[in-house]
Amino acid sequence: MPRNAKVTALDLGPRAALDPEMEAYLAKCVEKLGFVPNVLAAHAFSNGKLKAFVMLADELMLGDSGLSRLEREMIAVAVSSINHCHYCLTAHGAALRQRAKDPVLGELIAHNFRSADLPQRQKAMLNFVAKLTEAPDRIEEADRQALREAGFSDRDIWDIAAVAAFYSMSNRLASATDMRPNRDYHYQLRADANAGAAPPGKAPGRLAPPIDSKRRRPA
Q1: Residue 85 in 3-state DSSP?
Q2: Which of 186, 143, 175, 180 is nearest to 161 (CA)?
Q3: Can you tell me the distance from the alpha carbon of 37 to that of 16, in angstroms, rounded to the nearest whole number?
Q4: For burial by CB atoms within 10 Å, which of 40, 123, 135, 171 has the most?
Q5: Which pLDDT score is estimated for 5?
Q6: Nearest-angstrom CA–CA distance, 77 and 91
Q7: Nearest to residue 8, comparing CAs of 215, 176, 210, 209?
Q8: Do residues 143 and 118 make contact, with C-beta atoms less than 8 angstroms apart?
Q9: Under-70 pLDDT residues of the chain
Q10: Over pLDDT 90: what percentage of the chain?
Q11: What's the CATH architecture for 20-187?
Q12: Which residue, among 19, 67, 73, 25, has the nearest Cα to 46 in the 3D structure?
């Protein structure tokens, strides 16, 4: 996609007058990533919508949880794979490669998580989110019990469902608007593991650090 291409297929008007917190958030994206993720640029026609998206995404993906951040990225990618969401697969595929420090695992989960050699805990987790995404009306107590037997608490099960539900929503919004990922995501952490270097002219994949001393990070 050309660098000057539209972020979405919709004409949503100019960027809103953002409050200081959101301006700082986008500035930190540029400082640490080198760009503003297009999902944030797409929401920026409304300060309220941008802030709501950022706060929920950060809480789900970075907040306190019995799920590791890697496991939460696995959920995002597995759900996005089922929903065939180009934006989320590209952006969160990059984040998963970064979290796992394993480009091969990232690709396996993006294409078919069942082909990955995962611990039973993570297999159970992804089997649950696949069913929740494909046939939510068929979730029953046996599905929740399978997660308990894999070592998840009831609060963990809530978090698994919440992350999966959030990305199903995000996938549908991205697909409805033809949201396109930043080109940079395609190149992140795709260096030859034996060479130990990024493709020519590209920096290794990075995730942005917090915008303050607490927890807030670019989505």
Answers
A1: coil
A2: 143
A3: 16
A4: 171
A5: 64
A6: 9
A7: 176
A8: no
A9: 1-5, 186-219
A10: 69
A11: Up-down Bundle (1.20)
A12: 19
How do residues 137-148 score in pLDDT, each as one tens digit?
A: 999 999 999 999
Tokens of 175: 């697909």
| Residue 147 · residue 156 · CB < 8 Å | yes
pLDDT at 219: 56
Pick from 104, 79, 82: nearest CA to 92? 79
Separation between Cα atoms, residue 109 and residue 93, nearest integer Å: 9
| Six token digits for residue 135 | 């046939």
pTM for this predicted structure: 0.83
The Cα 132–Cα 79 span in angstroms is: 9
pLDDT digits (tens, 9 = 90+) for 150-161: 999 999 999 999
Amino acid identity, residue 108?
Answer: L
